[in-house]
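Contributing new records

If you add data, match the layout below exactly. Sequence lines come first and carry their own label; structure lines follow with theirs. Keep one chain per record. Anything else will be rejected by the validation script.
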Amino acid sequence: MVPEDRSDGPGAGEESARLQAAGTVRKGCDLSTDSLHGRLQSRRARIHQQIDRELRMRTGAENLYRATSNARVRETVALELSDVNSSLQLLKEELAGLDSSGDTGQPESEGVTAPMIPLGLKETKPLDWAPPLKELICRHFGEDGASYEAEIRELEDLRQATRTPSRSKAGLELLTAYYNQLCFLEARFVTPARSLGLLFHWYDSLTGLPAQQRALAFEKGSVLFNIGALHTQIGARQNRSCPEGIGRAVEAFQRAAGAFSLLRENFSHAPSPDMSPTSLSMLEQLMRAQAQECVFEGLLLQAPRAAHDCLAQLRLAQEAAQVAAEYRLVHRTMAQPPVRGYVPFPWITLVHVKAEHFHALAHYHAALGLCDGASVAESELPVLEKVFLASAEARGPALPQEREERSKLGKAHLRRALLGQEAALQLHAVCRALRREDLLQAVLARALQRSLAKYSELDLEDDFHEATEAPDIQPKTQQRPEGRTPSFSRVKVADIFHRLGPLSVFSAKNHWRLVGPLHLSRGEGGFGFTLRGDSPVLIAAVVPGGRAAVRPPHRRAGKVGPPRGGGVLWDSPRLLQEAGLKEGDYIVSVNGQPCRWWKHAEVVAQLKGVGDEGVSLQVVTLLPAAELPVSGDRRPALGGLLRSQKECGQETPVPSRGSPRPRPLLGWNHKANRGKTGRRLSPAPQP
């Protein structure tokens, strides 16, 4: 997903200034003021450093074990490997406990609600953008890379701020702004055959293991992952004891599911387990389940008004059964390899606990509807019977009309509710990390006490009837939350490297010849050419025999150099004095003033104001790949002013058209962008 290529002229400059003045979009979390978040970030960074050190020790020990044949040395190394592996396992458990702790997802209220599973952010190392970007700007765009130090510094500051985003709307805007800038960078500097040459380091969010790759798509994917992870943290911290907080939590988990879905559909060959398709699919299912749980909690807030409404209680039973079904699906995914190998054990246990808990709640609300609900009209019986799943032997359980029979069926549902709640408490007691979650234990204990109290009311001494088998509850929901893709267009950003020119022309995917300066004088019919389009303005037609007409013998007489890794070719001054313009050239300079971002009207006004002295133009001609020269001297151009080739460094050869292109480990899927037409240039009058 690439932001729309738009003019980055005066309007974009004002937008960039507005973003910088706003401050919140460019700054990360101040760890000195946000002490809770600061402790979390510091502990995660410390664990990642220790994991890095232990991995290096393990690699060295494994190499020594394979290299030596001394039995005593091999025994010593084997003991060292065992110790290192134990240390790694403890560090991974500590990281999992950190992700499952209240520091990441502590609710904002004291309400008794079950804890959610937030996802920790991926950590990264600092990155020096300057050397590769300066070299590429000089080599391909023909400009002085040192003149873009301010832009490079702004990009580095933005990336540094994204390492510690605040858990708020401002933090999401910060990550989204950087993601949009990466889209601009990819469109301008990256081609399928050439990357930036930077090595991007990121730590796995689930295991803490480091991963690195030279593809810019890995950086984009990691930032998108953090956008989804930050949504999970925001959703887990909401106050779910009021409708407003529940609505915000549902939206946050939907946004998280949409981010992971977008990542799974568009990125491939990820070098870290947390970004693999199976992991992303599991995270997407988990976020949908948590959003469904929030929907059920919202319906519970209205339950006191419908305590004696049989139909309302049975619908609550179906909603709880839907939540249980969602969590069972997540648990099956987590329990299967390879996901089971790197998902924290507390996550697997918590998901299992919630599946049992909501399955028991479904039977509890079914019991309330049967025992406390008012009499049901005969016309409503077919609707209510659909709440219960039909068994294999019977066509379906009929809903009893007699109060005694309904009480017996309700009591059977209460027994199943008690069994499920006891099973949930037993699972909770197995996991040491979950035993520290007081809120979860309070929720489970309260549900059990409520079911026991209701069962005591129905457990009469003279009840000698045969126990009834309660049927399962049919999962059904009135509001199924689907994933919502993050809204990247809401965060407006200006292309940091807009001075290089519009992306439609001035990108690493294009090669062009810089022609000029050409001096033209006005004739009786004007300058002899017509213009159309904006940013940059295009020469639509050249009048044959006019002042700007091309003279083929002279245009081809000069020495022209091949790009060979660069995008700009430079024609000699002698040739340019005799050559003219041709249809399809883009005007980039008028009388020494850069005009790559000028509108059509601005260029026309400048040309109309020219006197008898004439005008000096500089244009670029796009070169198709089949027409690129193959010999000659290459001379770079800084708007025609760069002095020597030495300032640009050495040339690098371009791979031949027949050579296979290396396949990146992580790539962005461009299928959605295929078939889109380029920007249409609007016609303009002759100056």
